[in-house]
Design a protein that fits this description.
Elements: H1 4-10, H2 16-46, H3 53-62, H4 66-87, H5 98-118, H6 122-145, H7 151-174, H8 180-204, H9 211-214, E1 222-224, H10 228-249, H11 255-278, E2 283-285
Antiparallel strand pairs: 1-2
Helix pairs in contact: 1-2, 2-4, 3-4, 5-6, 5-7, 6-10, 7-8, 7-10, 8-11, 10-11
Length: 291
């Protein structure tokens, strides 16, 4: 390949137009090479280069011509940019997804079920409760299958379960179906988790920390990861609520089974509350890309 520098300096077979064109190409090539090198230095300083940089360096050393070296550097830069995009956390996310709508519907159903319990319409309350449980399974399936998981979904999904649990615990205890000490234990644990959620939301929210931004759930700041015992406890609490409704509406299960279930749920409630205190992976603070 003819070296443009040699042609310009010697002036062989070049008129003024060709010389200017070649000079422009030479300047453009040097600018591109400077930009690539500059970008690579910035990436190197930030520690964002991919683990395979050593291999890229070996490939670059094998390039013989300036054009091949430039192409290799451009390819390496492209891989680094893709790596940065994969690691970056968006400042906003789309919260208007089908799983989030189903979760919100379950959240709205909680006070309606409580109203039915207070009116002693246990059969209807049991039907709405079963429908809410079905939406809980459905939104998780859709989110996993179609990759519609969101940070806000990881928060409002357990929040909807807790809202349903809280309303049913209060109303069933008020009607004498659920023991008051067990209801106090369940509500006390959930109140502690809610206060902790408000605290982590505040400390993890990117600046500026305003009231509008605090309640703007399209701005992810912290991700809640339920512990295994917490998932088991939630499932057992749902079984307890369903059994409490069926025991009043259908007379089943027996009082002995209900007593055993009360003690079991009480134990898992204490255990799950402690797991959030001592687990390091229950809450993850998200790092945001700077704008």
């Amino acid at each position: 390949m003819l070296d443009t520098t040699l042609v310009i300096t010697t002036g062989v077979h070049c008129n003024i137009e060709v010389r200017l064109l070649l000079l422009f190409l030479l300047i453009l090539r040097n600018i591109q090479q400077y930009q690539v090198n500059n970008f690579c230095k910035v990436i190197s300083r930030r520690g964002l280069a991919s683990p395979s940089n050593d291999n890229h360096g070996n490939d670059e050393s094998k390039a013989t011509t300036p054009k091949q070296k430039l192409q290799q550097k451009a390819a390496n830069a492209k891989m680094m940019i893709n790596s940065i995009k994969d690691k970056a956390i968006p400042a906003h996310e789309n919260i208007y997804t089908i799983p989030n709508f189903l979760t919100f519907a379950r959240l709205v159903s909680a006070p309606f079920i409580g109203y039915l319990i207070m009116k002693h319409d246990y059969e209807f309350a049991l039907g709405i409760f079963a429908l809410a449980g079905f939406t809980d399974l459905l939104d998780g399936y859709i989110a996993r299958k179609y990759n519609l998981k969101t940070v806000v979904g990881s928060i409002i999904d357990p929040a909807a379960d807790k809202a349903l649990m809280t309303v049913m615990t209060i109303t069933l205890a008020a009607e004498g179906v659920l023991p008051v000490p067990l209801a106090g234990l369940i509500l006390g644990r959930d109140a502690g988790l809610v206060l902790a959620a408000f605290y982590y939301r505040y400390i993890s929210l990117p600046k500026p920390k305003t009231l509008v931004r605090y309640f703007d759930f399209s701005i992810p700041s912290a991700e809640v990861r339920p512990t295994m015992i917490s998932k088991v406890n939630t499932a057992l609490q749902l079984v307890l609520m369903a059994a409490s409704l069926t025991s009043t509406a259908l007379g089943q299960p027996s009082s002995e089974i209900m007593t055993a279930l009360h003690w079991t749920v009480g134990g898992t409630t204490i255990w799950s509350g402690a797991s959030y205190i001592y687990s390091k992976d229950a809450v993850r603070i998200l790092n945001h890309e700077t704008k």
